[in-house]
Amino acid sequence: MSQPIHLGISTCPNDTFAFHGLLAGKIDTGGLEFRIELADVQELNERLSQGHFDVAKGSYHAALLLSDHLGVLPSGSALGHGVGPVVLATTPRVLPPEPRDDEPDPTPTPTVLCPGRFTTATLLWQLFHGRLAQPSQALFSEIMPALKAGDTDLGVCIHEGRFTYADWGLVLVEDLGASWETRTNMPLPLGGILARRSLSDDVLRRVQSCVRASIDYGLEHRDETVKTMRRHAQEMDEDVLWSHVDLYVNDWTQDLGPDGRRALAFLSAMGRSRGLVPETQAPLEVLV
Description:
Layout: E1 3-10, H1 13-18, H2 20-23, E2 32-39, H3 41-49, E3 55-59, H4 60-65, E4 70-72, E5 78-80, E6 86-89, E7 112-114, H5 120-129, E8 136-137, H6 140-148, E9 154-157, H7 161-164, E10 171-175, H8 176-184, E11 188-196, H9 201-220, H10 226-232, H11 238-248, H12 251-254, H13 257-273
Parallel strand pairs: 1-2, 1-3, 7-8, 7-9
Antiparallel strand pairs: 3-11, 4-11, 5-11, 6-9, 6-10
């Protein structure tokens, strides 16, 4: 008997590359019938919280907050070195040290845009600069235009923005991924494939097998994936698409491994220590 699976993935090139095999019908799904939706990562996070998907790409910030109901599959993560969100501005500036709890907030407080309240970008800003300024939220593709228009002082940018901000006349204020690596000496876990804990072990194993097979297919048929990536990417330049894939699709995408699992545990511990992840939340678990 076939098993329907409602799968959500992001429109980012790394996801459309990794899931090209499934999207193009190149993978033996082992009796699973995938209904695939593509959406912005923050929309996926919100809809995961509302129970809309069986399996979906989600930010690890969202995963930590939804761990009572969701776990992580070993394959499909965006995790690594040099992959973090970047804080951008229109002119060079240095972020002041965070005030201590007993110090007044700096004046004036800068305005900051982040790409969604459940994104790992927002979690990193809160971890490193949350006492400096609380961010507002916008769709990731709207942040660089808002900076250019002078509507915000700072913008935390993800996805293709890491490669294209100079084309907008913007400057790098801080690489939050580099800040994470300096503090932890670990790869940065950005997002992963999250699955309902209520799915049976057999279904979870079959979904994991399909995700891994699709990633492997993309790596073995790179040229074939370009049309799929172009169909959904905000940035159409092919060099940018491949820069994105080569940075975000790596050995940890194929399998989290021990380093990926340690990095996830450390991110959870940092979030809990700052009160950004409730102590009552279940530990985030790798399900297969």
